[in-house]
Amino acid sequence: MVFKTSEADLGLAVSDTVSGLPVLSHNNKSLFILVIDIFPHSTTASQRGRLEVREITETDLLELVT
Question: What is the pTM (predicted TM-score) of this model?
Fold first, then answer.
C-alpha cells in the first residue's frame, strides 16, 4: 500500500496491471500496488479541478524495495 499524503495525484508508470491494480514483478514475486489517499482535502473531489500528477516509475519503486 502507498499512502498519498499530498494534493498531487500519483501516476504509477508500471508495465503490468491486474484488474486495474498496478503490478510490479521483483525477485520472482508480484507486488500489487494500492494507493490510498489520506490527504485532508479542504474541498470535495468535484470542486478541486484537475490534479497535478507526479509520476513514479518501476525503477523508482524498485529502488525503494531493495
Answer: 0.71
